[in-house]
Write a structure and sequence with these properties.
Shape: globular
CATH superfamily: Divalent-metal-dependent TIM barrel enzymes
Radius of gyration: 18 Å
Mean pLDDT: 91
CATH topology: TIM Barrel
Number of domains: 1
Structural class: alpha/beta
Number of helices: 9
Distance between the termini: 16 Å
Order of helices and strands: EHEHEHEEEHEHEHHEEEHEH
Strand content: 15-25%
Low-confidence stretches: none
CATH class: Alpha Beta
Number of strands: 12
Bound molecules: fe (ii) ion
């Protein structure tokens, strides 16, 4: 994987509901992640808004519909539009998920987990490499949450490792997803960090979920403040490697007072710079 990726610092996921906060408190936000599909084939006016944001912030497109895990190759038109978008905002990388979101006939409307075999991990790595090569900047792949853990030959950490060993893409490690999966499926998240190639983590997501079924099940809502468990995982990760960017990801239940989200962005920056004071110097 390229070692010259820029240091972006502490960012916030762009959502229309946060537009005012981002405009007013832009000096406390180092960069923005935008949802790829909201902009790919958007009307000119919306693209202009994105270009405006790109003049103020580094922008990274984060997709939800690439469906890396589908058997067929990604749509050529989608990839061309993605490359154009990346070029337009001068994105240092782009990201999507290690999952599938569609079959040949049906868009599932959710991020579905994959049958974890070494063979599939290698196939997806080759496909991810082709995607990265065609878009022209590094492709980061994100770990998802899953609520049913099918009996598969290898575990999630092994699947991710096998994937990364067969391509030079990076990992977008969602620490909230890691925390939720660890609690729902009873594994040690620190052991997970110790068994993946952490040096391939370029960026993390920080978010909060909710507890369902009387506390028996953790749910990935991305609608709560970042819990201490997730901050602790960030500390553990930063003790193991130097990453380029953190991102506070809030998808719903936006707080009335933006101070809460901005405090999280500040806290992530402090953690990044506290662990690697020279990180901001390229
Ligand atoms: Fe995420």
């Amino acid at each position: 994987m390229r070692s010259d990726l820029p240091y972006l610092g502490s960012g916030l996921g762009y959502r229309p509901e946060l537009s005012e906060t981002i405009t007013r408190a832009g000096d406390r936000i180092d960069w923005l992640e935008v949802i790829t599909e909201n902009h790919l084939f958007a009307p000119a006016e919306q693209r202009e808004h994105l270009r405006e944001l790109a003049r103020r912030f580094p922008i990274v497109p984060h997709g939800v519909e690439l469906s890396l895990g589908s058997p067929r190759e990604p749509d050529g038109e989608y990839l061309r539009a993605l490359a154009e978008l990346v070029d337009e905002v001068d994105a240092p990388w782009f990201s999507d998920h290690l999952c599938f979101t569609r079959t040949d006939q049906v868009a599932l409307g959710l991020l579905a987990p994959l049958p974890r075999t070494r063979e599939l991990a290698r196939d997806l790595a080759r496909k991810a490499q082709r995607i990265q090569d065609s878009v022209g900047v590094p492709f980061l792949v994100e770990n998802i949450t899953y609520y049913v853990d099918l009996a598969t030959p290898i575990g999630e950490a092994q699947f991710i490792t096998e994937f990364l060993e067969h391509c030079d893409c990076g990992l977008l490690l969602d620490l909230a997803n890691l925390d939720i999966n660890a609690r729902n499926h009873g594994f040690d998240p620190i052991g997970f960090l110790d068994s993946i190639p952490v040096e391939r983590v370029v960026q993390v997501h920080l978010a909060g979920g909710i507890d369902g079924r009387g506390g028996e099940l953790s749910i990935d809502s991305h609608g709560e403040s970042v819990p201490e468990r997730v901050w602790a995982l960030l500390t553990e990760l930063l003790a193991r490697t130097r990453i380029r960017a953190t991102l506070v990801e809030r998808d719903q239940n936006f707080p009335d007072d933006p101070a809460e989200l901005l405090a999280e962005v500040d806290r992530a920056r402090t953690a990044l710079l506290g662990a690697h004071p020279a990180a901001a110097i390229r």
